[in-house]
């Protein structure tokens, strides 16, 4: 049975709503542009970067309606610029050292901190549920919007403009060799140590497998040529390797 069509006035309102896009007021745009240090030639790019996916259904938008595609681009632009900054800042450091700092600088947590410093949540377009749901630690909506904002600046003003924004809002001068993310895989941290100390990279060797087939115990030795070795056990090889890397790191960092 064919459903009755909606009144013409209702259809027109719905069509107008679907075609529209949230827009910052001139006052808010000027305030945000002052904070980020960049003035947009195409303000639609700025507005687009601030649209949270929670509004897709309300505005009947497609894949390109929200800032998700811009976030995808901005993540790559951020990575390229940060990598080049680190290469130029540390001409004598090995890849492991720079990788550690790279992951910290492009992480969602860092982007969220940058966005919070800019009060970016105040400018985001999102539904009422998202507006009232403010995370205590990691604001993903803000982190994603920062990456989308980088894409908007890149598309509007080119790579140099995006680089100036990142250099303005990210902290590079205080980077040190002692920054360690406690959540990092011990094997990654051990590789970073090897890179920073210009040594051969760690070698892992399974030296014993014991216990019943359904519950094996692996003993793994981790060694760095010329610096030392350590052994540890685990319920699988990956777990044992991580434990051995952690034990070896403890030894290396004490010497």
Largest sheet data: 3 strands, antiparallel
Contiguous helical run count: 11
According to CATH, the homologous superfamily of the largest domain is Ribonuclease III domain
Enumerate the spans where pLDDT stays under 50 for 5 or more consecutive residues: 10-19
Strand order of the largest sheet: 1-2-3
Label the structural class: mainly alpha
Q: How would you summarize the topology of this molecule?
A:
Layout: H1 8-19, H2 26-36, H3 43-49, H4 68-89, H5 95-105, H6 108-117, H7 128-132, H8 140-157, H9 159-169, H10 186-196, E1 203-210, E2 217-224, E3 228-234, H11 237-254
Antiparallel strand pairs: 1-2, 2-3
Helix pairs in contact: 3-8, 4-5, 4-8, 4-9, 5-10, 6-8, 8-9, 10-11
Question: What is this entry, summarized?
Answer:
The chain is mainly alpha-helical and 255 residues long.
Describe this structure in words.
By secondary structure, the chain is mainly α. It folds into two domains: 22-169, Ribonuclease iii, N-terminal Endonuclease Domain, Chain A (Orthogonal Bundle); 186-254, 2-Layer Sandwich (Double Stranded RNA Binding Domain), CATH 3.30.160.20. Helix content is 53%, strand content 9%. The chain contains eleven helices and three strands. The chain has helices at residues 8-19, 26-36, 43-49, 68-89, 95-105, 108-117, 128-132, 140-157, 159-169, 186-196, 237-254, and strands at 203-210, 217-224, 228-234. It has a three-stranded antiparallel beta sheet with strand order 1-2-3, covered by helices on one side. Helix 4 crosses helix 9 (159-169), helix 5 crosses helix 10 (186-196) and helix 10 (186-196) crosses helix 11. The longest helix is centred in the first third of the chain and has 22 residues, at 68-89.
């Amino acid at each position: 049975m064919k459903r009755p069509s909606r009144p013409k006035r209702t259809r027109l309102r719905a069509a107008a709503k679907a075609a529209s896009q949230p827009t910052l007021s001139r006052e808010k745009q000027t305030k945000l542009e002052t904070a980020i240090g960049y003035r947009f030639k195409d303000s639609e790019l700025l507005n687009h970067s601030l649209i949270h996916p929670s509004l897709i259904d309300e505005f009947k938008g497609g894949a390109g309606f929200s800032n998700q595609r811009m976030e995808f681009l901005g993540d790559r632009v951020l990575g390229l610029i940060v990598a080049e900054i680190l290469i130029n800042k540390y001409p004598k450091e090995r890849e492991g050292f720079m990788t550690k700092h790279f992951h910290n600088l492009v992480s969602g947590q860092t982007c969220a901190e940058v966005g919070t410093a800019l009060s970016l949540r105040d400018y985001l377009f999102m539904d009422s549920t998202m507006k009232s749901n403010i995370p205590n630690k990691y604001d993903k909506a803000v982190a994603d919007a920062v990456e989308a904002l980088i894409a908007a600046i890149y598309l509007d003003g080119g790579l140099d403009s995006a680089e100036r924004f990142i250099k303005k809002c990210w902290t590079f001068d205080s980077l040190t060799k002692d920054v360690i993310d406690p959540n990092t895989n011990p094997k990654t941290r051990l590789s970073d140590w090897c890179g920073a100390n210009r040594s051969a990279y760690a070698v892992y060797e399974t030296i014993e497998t014991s216990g019943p087939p359904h519950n094996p115990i692996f003993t793994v030795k981790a060694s760095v040529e010329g610096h030392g070795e350590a052994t540890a056990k685990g319920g699988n090889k990956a777990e044992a390797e991580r434990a051995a890397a952690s034990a070896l790191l403890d030894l290396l960092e004490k010497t």
